Amino acid sequence: MNEVVLEAKSKQEAILKAMKALNANEEEIIYNITEEKGSLFKSTSYSIKATTRVHVVELLKKFLFQVITNLGIDVNFESNIRDKTININMYTDKSGLLIGKNGETLKALEILAKQKINQEYNCFIKLNLDIENYKLKRTENLERLAKKTAREVRSTKVEASLENMNSFERRIIHNALTNFKGIKTLSEGEEPNRHVIIKPTE
After folding, report:
1. What are the angstrom distances between the C-alpha of 115 and each of 68, 79, 108, 126, 145?
2. Is 158 left (phi over 0), alpha (psi -120 to 50) or beta?
3. To which H or E segment does residue 38 belong?
4. Nearest to residue 198, comparing CAs of 155, 167, 138, 137?
5. Is 62 left (phi over 0), alpha (psi -120 to 50) or beta?
6. What per-residue confidence (pLDDT) applies to 2?
7. What is the rounded distance in angstroms from the CA atom of residue 103 to the CA atom of residue 18?
8. CB neighbour class for 81 (10 Å; exposed up to 12, middle 13-18, buried from 19)
9. Torsion angle in degrees (nearest 10) through CA of 130, 132, 135, 137
10. What's the pLDDT tens digit per position in 75-116?
11. How much is the pLDDT for 40?
12. Cis bond before residue 200 (omega within 30° of 0)
């Protein structure tokens, strides 16, 4: 059984019923509960639509496969679930095309995938969509850049402006330098020309 729609007298009962029907614990399922107000002759009831995260992974891979192959691109997947986050890594001989400039195409695919699940189950999921570990490699490169630039700024006392970055990339820079002594970071500019400035502290 991949998904269930059940009714119960309380939210907790609805969740317990869904867990039993799906043979899964609460961390392994996603669900949406709607309340049906009672009346003079009928008490309030709750309806739950639930499925497992494992099923969501398969649904997402099927959806992404259709989207990407319709572009004439072959793709394979690796996936896992960790700390309630669904991780899907895609492999293709046209990775650059699917990643896009500064990862914008990859970001758009991730948004589409989340919208697909929201449409099906009306709930939010944590999803990390990647292509051949692009995000991991990009994160490592940006962290090295951040620390190298911060050392230069701290040494010369001259602020430095980094290239324009999206919000994901800017967050990496800020996080990498959170505890870096002698400097501070801030973001300036308007999207898509927003960038990080690394400044020396007094």
Report:
1. 16, 19, 11, 12, 33
2. beta
3. none
4. 155
5. alpha
6. 87
7. 38
8. middle
9. 170
10. 999 999 999 899 999 999 999 999 998 788 999 999 999 999
11. 65
12. no
CB 150 within 8 A of CB 198: yes
Tokens 């292509």 appear where? 131
pLDDT tens-place string over residues 151-191 = 999 999 999 999 999 888 999 999 999 999 999 999 999 88
Give the tokens for residue 192: 């898509």
* Greatest Cα-to-Cα distance within the chain, rounded to the nearest angstrom: 77
For every residue of 39-72, DSSP letters joined together read -SSS--EEEEEEEEHHHHHHHHHHHHHHHHHTTT
Asked if residue 118 has pLDDT above 70, the reply is yes
In terms of DSSP H, where are the helices of the chain?
Answer: 11-22, 53-69, 95-99, 104-121, 134-156, 167-176
pLDDT per residue as tens digits for the range 16-55: 999 999 999 999 999 999 988 767 677 889 999 999 999 9
Which residues are within 8 A (CB) of 59 and not within 5 positions of it... i.e. 6 or more apart?
Answer: 116, 117, 120
